[in-house]
């Protein structure tokens, strides 16, 4: 019912493993067939065109944009580990059957990342977060694909509610 692309690790190594194990074909087929799909952390990043982590590595290119390092910007943390808020775009629906974004507006989610998504298509950005002066995509939705930079499974009650709604609504 739901394909999940999780992730903790390095972009280039993850892409290599996806290719070597032929899982990349499975992921691409699921995206082409508009299967219900959830990307988590590195799973969100892999869906973009490319990453600059350890040199330029081509991604899956489902989302247009690239993954950049916090080190190039004025930020609070070069490696962001901890809780952060997500500012939801009230004009965009996270879930079709429920309008629950307001339930999350006061919630914090758990992030672990040194790189962030810089989307070229602003219409798919449902939620944004900040690290110092950098505003980055923290929740992206396109078709039946939802991806989040944070770890909902580590984000307490709000994260578990988000996962429950992903399963019900996608």
Structure description:
There is one protein chain. The chain is an alpha/beta fold and 170 residues long. 25% of the residues lie in helices and 32% in strands. It is built from five helices and twelve strands. The chain has helices at residues 11-20, 23-32, 42-45, 101-104, 156-169, and strands at 3-5, 37-40, 50-51, 57-58, 65-69, 80-85, 87-88, 108-113, 115-119, 125-131, 134-142, 145-148. A six-stranded mixed beta sheet has the order 1-2-12-11-10-7. A four-stranded mixed beta sheet has the order 4-3-5-9, covered by helices on one side. Strands 6-8 form a two-stranded antiparallel ribbon. Strand 10 (125-131) and strand 11 form a beta hairpin. The chain is globular.
Overview in brief:
The chain has about 170 residues and is of the alpha/beta class. The chain has helices at about 10-20, 25-30, 40-45, 100-105, 155-170, and strands at about 5, 35-40, 50, 55-60, 65-70, 80-85, 85-90, 110-115, 115-120, 125-130, 135-140, 145-150.
Number of separate helices: 5
User: On the 0-100 scale, what is the average pLDDT?
Assistant: 89
Structural class: alpha/beta
Question: Strand order, biggest sheet?
Answer: 1-2-12-11-10-7
Cα distance, first to last residue? 9 Å
Which word captures the global form?
globular
Using the CA coordinates, give the radius of gyration: 15 Å
Largest pleated sheet: 6 strands, mixed
The quaternary state of the protein chains shown equals: single chain
Fraction in helix: 10-25%
Low-pLDDT runs: none
Strand content: 25-35%
Order of helices and strands: EHHEHEEEEEHEEEEEH
Give a count of the beta strands, DSSP E runs of length 2 or more.
12
